[in-house]
Automatic annotation (TrEMBL):
Protein name: O-antigen polymerase
Keywords: Membrane, Transmembrane, Transmembrane helix
Keyword Chloroplast attributed: no
The encoding gene: wzy
Residues spanning the membrane: 12-30, 74-93, 105-122, 147-173, 185-206, 218-237, 249-267, 273-291, 303-324
InterPro entries linked: EpsG-like
Any Pfam family hit: EpsG
Length: 340
């Protein structure tokens, strides 16, 4: 009887997963023109590069987008086919990673539901390049074959430049893990993160990105709710990552991109900084989710709830509104300045 119930429940969860994934992919693929503020830009880039003959290292977009545009155009496809490829591959890769880590279809369905609420609108529905890159990164980290791993990591770097640091650190972490160097790994990589951040600060010192000339002081962004959530999560989740490769990997990546967030704040490059914070929150969300499936801790559940609520507000304020309306606090400060 128990085995029959298990088979029945598994069938129900697989059907739910299929319908959820199909619905998300369909929405991202057939969304009307102008549904999100990146659609026209991607349409313009697709038309620009689909027949181009350059090497594919343009400033506007990464090489993989250019090559996929050419491939889709070769088979007489349009922007819809390109959106389908990006969305389908990104979602499936992320789901493969979650399934491998949690081992439960019910947890996979729960993940898709939460993901559709907080990250789907700002990734698969809007920022398709970073979405694909993150999916490839997670899927590639599962590969045991070094050649396949290297090929997927190369595709990740060609998908979005902001994940080049993560590819470097995953490769380094795998090498250290193969050498059974476990005790000093986190400390070593944390120090390396700091050194790389200093080098980036030096390299980017003359490149400043501002919100249409509007700048807030550094402490405002450092004490931003997203920053405080990351700090608390990094401090608390450290106790759960011992002797588990993927827990440690996600923790290190979240820590790396939080360091990058702080580094670009020093540069007064808030847009770039919050892109890195968004990636850090993604890795932390994945980490908290898969740990929560194994450890039933009330604090972990609370962290998950806080992360979901704040990211829900984040995506509704940022992904849908223009970049000037970056978040509620920024708007509030701007209105106060105007009133004064």
């Amino acid at each position: 009887m128990t085995n029959t119930n298990y088979i029945y429940n598994e069938f129900i969860f697989r059907c739910l997963f299929f319908f959820l994934i199909s619905g998300l992919i369909t929405l991202s693929t057939i969304k009307p023109e102008g549904f999100d503020h990146d659609y026209k830009q991607y349409l313009y880039l697709f038309e620009l590069y689909k027949n181009s003959i350059d090497l594919g290292f343009g400033y506007e977009v990464e090489p993989l987008f250019i090559y996929l545009s050419r491939l889709v155009n070769f088979f007489n496809g349009g922007i819809v086919a390109l959106l389908f490829i990006y969305t389908a591959v990104a979602l499936i890769c992320k789901c493969i990673f979650i399934k491998r880590c949690t081992k439960k279809t019910s947890q996979l369905v729960f993940f898709v539901f939460l993901y559709s609420v907080i990250f789907y609108p700002i990734h698969e529905l809007t920022q398709i390049r970073i979405s694909l890159a993150l999916g490839l990164l997670l899927w590639g980290s599962l590969q045991k074959n070094k050649i396949i791993f290297a090929m997927i990591m190369l595709l990740t770097m060609l998908s979005h430049y902001s994940l080049i640091p993560s590819v470097i650190f995953i490769s380094l972490f795998r090498y250290l893990n193969d050498k059974i160097v476990r005790t000093q790994v986190l400390a070593f990589i944390a120090l390396l993160c700091f050194v790389i951040c200093l080098l980036l600060i030096f390299y980017m010192s003359r490149q400043t990105i501002k919100y249409d000339g509007t700048n807030m002081p550094f402490y405002f962004y450092f004490l931003h709710p997203y920053s405080l959530i990351m700090l608390f999560s990094l401090f608390y989740m450290r106790r759960y990552i011992k002797n588990h490769f993927y827990y440690q990997l996600l923790y290190i990546l979240a820590m790396l991109y939080y360091f990058l967030f702080l580094s670009f704040l020093f540069l007064q490059s808030q847009i770039a900084a919050f892109r890195f914070m968004e990636i850090a929150l993604f890795f932390m969300f994945i980490l908290i989710f898969i740990i929560n499936s194994s450890f039933k801790s009330s604090i972990i559940k609370m962290l998950m709830l806080i992360l979901v609520v704040t990211m829900f507000l984040y995506e509704h304020v940022i992904a849908i509104e223009p970049i000037l309306n970056f978040d509620i606090l920024h708007n509030s400060f701007s209105k106060m300045d105007t009133f004064q």
